[in-house]
Amino acid sequence: MVSHLAEVSITFVVVCLCFVGLLGNFALLTATVIYKELHHKISYIVGVLTSLHVVCLLSELYMEALQLRFNPTTRLECFRHTLIYEFAMLAQSSMFFMLWMDYLLAIVIPLK
């Protein structure tokens, strides 16, 4: 069993990294909204990916806060807490796959 000190230290590192990620994602979203040069299809796709990543980071922060209770959770409670995170990760993975397909088709079958 992992000691409480190890859990708290790992949680501290994860929370710090989540806040750095949130700061970067909000900066990217703000730049996409403010600057007209970024109003293109690829910027909108990156904006959607950034929004989904913000949801993932907020869910991770919530799960880290739950972990600091040091109480075991049931499977149903764990599923409820991770459902939004799993949906955002699935949507993010689907967006990356579609972006990859777009680039692949642009290289294999270029428009003239």
Provide structural commentary.
By secondary structure, the chain is an all-alpha fold. It has one domain (4-108). Helix content is 82%, strand content 0%. The chain contains three helices and no strands. It has helices spanning 4-34, 41-67, 75-108. Helix 1 (4-34) runs antiparallel to helix 2 (41-67) and helix 2 packs antiparallel against helix 3. The longest helix is centred in the C-terminal third of the chain and has 34 residues, at 75-108. The radius of gyration is 18 Å and the shape is elongated. The mean pLDDT is 90. This is G-protein coupled receptors family 1 profile domain-containing protein. Keywords: Membrane, Transmembrane, Transmembrane helix. It comes from Ancylostoma caninum. Pfam families: 7TM_GPCR_Srsx. The chain crosses the membrane at residues 12-35, 42-63, 83-109.
